[in-house]
Amino acid sequence: MDIPAGTALTGFWSRPLFRLQKRKLSDIITPVTIPRIIFLLLLRWITDMWCFFWFMVLTLTTLIFPRLAAAQGETLYHLVTGGQEVCHVEKKQSLNFLALEKGLRPWVLAKQTKLKVDTLLKPGTVLKFDTTHIVPTELTDGLVVNLPERLVYQFYMGVYQRRYAIAVGKKTWQTPTGLYKIVNKEENPTWTVPVSIQEEMEDMGWKVLEKVPPGPKNPLGKYWIGTSGENLGFHATNAPWSVGHAVSHGCMRMLPSEIAQLYPQVSVGDPVKIIYQPVKMALTPKGHIYLEAHPNIYDVKMDYLEYVKKMARSYQLESRIDWRKVDTVLKIRSGLAHDVTKESATVTDAVTPAPANKPRKLGLFPLQVQSSRVE
């Protein structure tokens, strides 16, 4: 093939390449040069793709940076449930245990009802109180434990069921955070005393026990739900007064009546996620911002206000928050969720949660469906 007649000797058809105007193209494109040309074209394509890749990375990072930042430790939830509840006391019980059944701190319920924590409630007593709370939707199925709350949340097929009060590890024997799964279940379990607890018994001058058979002296009570964590699980207790406190050796104690309700609803293989979240924030579908604060039971180094500010920046919510309300919530740390939206609108009333003291049998519908949310 000859070089086209009259073609200007610039660019591809320049003299440096062909030198002679009438040199044939077949003399240049030979079996030796073809691989070189293909290599150069491939190198150019790879370079273009590499540049395009990093361009997209930078673009997406710029657009979703707040979400990426928030994913690293600050989770914004979206489900707020509970609300104003009218409770008809059905059995003789203390205000303290009623508070545990409702997922409230006893002093919070006492303050709302203007009663003392140790008040003995009579059947037929009617109480009105608030139970609004943010649901930590860390899983769609399984159990989520938030240690500062001393509560475990149950989820089934993407639906929040309810929450239960628990006792967690004491400050010197903390319940570990992490993702686990249920590995065994046992009714009327025999307690095989861990070596670490045997050593503690010896240090305290107590009789060292290796095993405790089922019965009233067994600290595991009638039910055991074991997880993949070492010596970590949920169990009933022969010391129900301890539920709601940080007093255990790492396990999560439950009220006997409540673990009897939970036990048939969980299965081996179900996930269990344990988190440490003293402050929770939620953005509801209606655009309201809720904030909930709890005591820092393990004295983890953190500044509550700075944490909230960081989360607000991460999700670009700073201008929509009434920071005076935030200060109040963080000061009281009641465990109740409060609307901290600036110029907040009227919130839809919540449906009363399902009673805590009525166990659900296998095969029945969930105790509490998502329609019971505040928004």
TrEMBL record:
PROSITE patterns, alphabetized: LD_TPASE
One Gene Ontology cellular component: extracellular region
Pfam family, one: YkuD
Keywords recorded for this protein, A-Z: Cell shape, Cell wall biogenesis/degradation, Glycosyltransferase, Hydrolase, Membrane, Peptidoglycan synthesis, Transferase, Transmembrane, Transmembrane helix
GO biological process: one example: regulation of cell shape
InterPro entries listed in its UniProt record: LD-transpeptidase, LD_TPept_cat_dom, Transpep_catalytic_dom
Transmembrane parts of this sequence: 25-46, 52-70
Membrane is among the record's keywords: yes
Family: Belongs to the YkuD family.
Name of the protein described by the UniProt record: L,D-TPase catalytic domain-containing protein
Organism: Desulfobacca acetoxidans
